[in-house]
Design goal:
With 382 residues, this protein is α/β, with parallel strands linked by helices. The site of pyridoxal-5'-phosphate has 16 residues, from helix 4 and helix 5.
Length: 382
């Protein structure tokens, strides 16, 4: 059943580790819808599985593949990225101190604030790209959990994972939301992080038809066992069909991500300096503040996400989004189709996202079609 992990991530993903079901030698993964498993006459469970909430075989192959791609000890699938992040937060000791980036996925940022208001955690924020300020915070009040998101939504600040992990003191756990980077571009565990979290809804699945999440740990620990318990007992589990679709999506991860990276780089370079834009935010541009760290930390590209700031403010940005024909106007990211999103209005009151910003998720369409679409939407007299 197993494949040597010396193979490249592209090969591991394409073959989903090369697992073949023994009975019929199926090359396509088997779908496991069972919610319960038969006990033997002697009362034992021959396969070790009792009930699907904590023992579903539907997760095995996708979890093994993700653990291999991240070079982790173990991966766990969840019903969403938020469920994955929450399992880790819930596993912390009550009142644990969490240090989170100022710029990060808005939904989780808000939820951290809610948990802090409820007294379940204490919370402080750091400036994503200011390594010295972050190190000072790590020393002044060592958090139990340091949360990193890099590149960070929606302005794509870069945090130096290795330098940050080196700057923490014993007792601080580091978790990285690597949704945007994917296991192909950044390996947070190899850089010293303890946990990687993915909204598997995005690149891992890649087809806008599954909501899922994942956590991967570097090593086993009592805290990881609490995360496992959290999933099994709190019950935020993924359905078997979603797990199957996720695995199917992961098999083309390398093709999709590498195409999206190349396309995003070309689009960012083409739009950089455009007269209707005040800024193009993409870590692959030398003008981006995090470019040097990203170039060292990300292998094979700078990701498929970029943002543009439109001259003329919110109304002008909305008008550009409205004129796009190939890009779909929708929230989310990391799928085969390119998306445009006015983040400030999606995030709503309290957002710190600039109102003139449009977030672009680059899909796998022909790059020239996307560039032509952006040009026709931008090159209109105001
Ligand atoms: N992390 C990032 C970077 C995201 O973009 C999202 C969702 O947009 C999440 C986490 C939450 O994931 P999910 O929507 O799967 O719960």
């Amino acid at each position: 059943m197993s494949t040597p992990h010396t193979l490249s991530p592209d090969t591991l993903a394409a073959q989903a580790l090369g697992w073949v079901a023994p009975e019929h030698r199926d090359l396509a993964p088997t779908l496991h819808p069972a919610s319960t498993f038969e006990r033997a006459a002697d009362g034992s469970y021959p396969d070790g599985r009792v009930y699907a909430r904590d023992h579903s075989p539907a997760y095995d192959q996708a979890e093994a593949l993700l653990a291999a791609l991240e070079s982790g000890y173990q991966a766990l699938l969840f019903a969403s990225g938020m469920a994955a992040a929450n399992a880790l937060l819930q596993a912390l000791e009550p009142g644990a101190h969490v240090l989170a980036p100022r710029i990060m996925y808005w939904g989780l940022r808000n939820w951290l604030q809610t948990l802090a208001e409820r007294g379940q955690i204490t919370l402080d924020f750091y400036d994503n790209a200011d390594h010295n300020a972050l190190s000072a915070k790590l020393r002044a009040r060592p958090p139990r959990l340091l949360w990193i998101e890099t590149p960070a939504n929606p302005t794509w600040e870069i945090t130096d994972i290795a330098a940050t992990c080196a700057a923490r003191t014993a007792g601080t756990l580091v978790a990285v939301d690597s949704t945007v980077s994917t296991p192909l571009l950044t390996r947070p565990l190899a850089l010293g992080a303890d946990f990687v979290m993915h909204s598997a809804t995005k690149y891992l699945n890649g087809h806008s038809d599954v909501v899922a999440g994942a956590l991967v740990c570097r090593e086993d620990s009592p805290l990881w066992q609490r995360v496992r318990q959290q999933r099994a007992v709190a019950g935020a589990v993924l359905g078997p069909f979603e797990a199957w679709l996720l695995l199917r999506g992961m098999r083309t991860l390398a093709l999709r991500v590498r195409h999206a990276c190349a396309s995003a780089q070309r689009i960012a370079e083409t739009l950089h300096g455009h007269k209707r834009l005040t800024q193009v935010l993409y870590p692959g541009l030398p003008s981006h503040g995090g470019h040097a760290v990203a170039a060292a930390q990300m292998q094979g590209g700078f990701g498929g996400m970029l943002s543009i700031r439109v001259a003329g403010g919110e109304r002008a940005a909305m008008a550009v989004a409205g004129r796009l024909r190939v890009f779909k106007r929708a929230t989310s990211l990391g799928a085969v189709e390119s998306l445009v999103e006015h983040r400030a209005s999606v995030e709503g009151p309290g957002t710190i996202c600039p109102p003139d910003l449009l977030r672009l998720s680059i899909g796998i369409e022909a790059t020239n079609d996307l560039i032509a679409d952006l040009h026709q939407a931008l090159d209109v007299s105001p």
